[in-house]
Amino acid sequence: MDATGSPRQGWQTSPSFALARLRAGHHRFRVGGAPVLPGGPDPVAAILSCADPQPEAVTVFGGTDVYAVRTAGLEVGPAALGSLEYAVTHLGAPLLVVLGHAACSLPRGSGPDRVRATLAALRRRSPLLDQAVRSGRCGLHGMVWHDADRLLNEVRPALSPPARRVCRLRPPNRASTRSP
Ligand SMILES: [Zn+2]
After folding, report:
1. Binding annotation for Zn(2+)
2. pLDDT mean over 79-89
3. Contacts of 44 (CB under 8 A, 6+ apart)
4. Does pTM top 0.70 for this prediction?
């Protein structure tokens, strides 16, 4: 964060760079782990994950400095929302990741559909987070942890329904169908 209280800008804090660091961290985890470093004041990303037993986000991302919030089934009540807003607006986290997991024991689960619903809920319920995403200051990303193969899969955001193409059959052009 700079002297004006605004989150720092620059390529090192861009959402895409943060995502690349998380992916690199997950690669370290996959190839044999990495030391878990103490968290600093400038987390690479804020991660919302399920409170069910599963590896900590910092472990899954190979020791990358992340700001972790865990709630049962990715619920985003006021406490979780406030914590995530703090990470994005005060600590300047350039990326917010909703991390579900395939083996979720909760009734609504926390698989891809739940992750997509949570991504939408974060923006709907928090004007601060929505503004940070709209301005490009913070990226919003979904992932799901698969316990069986110890792998993270990306969750594609729900696409807004495509505009319906109205295809009207044109009446035959009499001029073109007319015999010469
Ligand atoms: Zn769960």
Report:
1. 50, 52, 101, 104
2. 96
3. 18, 21, 22, 61, 64, 65, 66, 93, 94, 95
4. yes
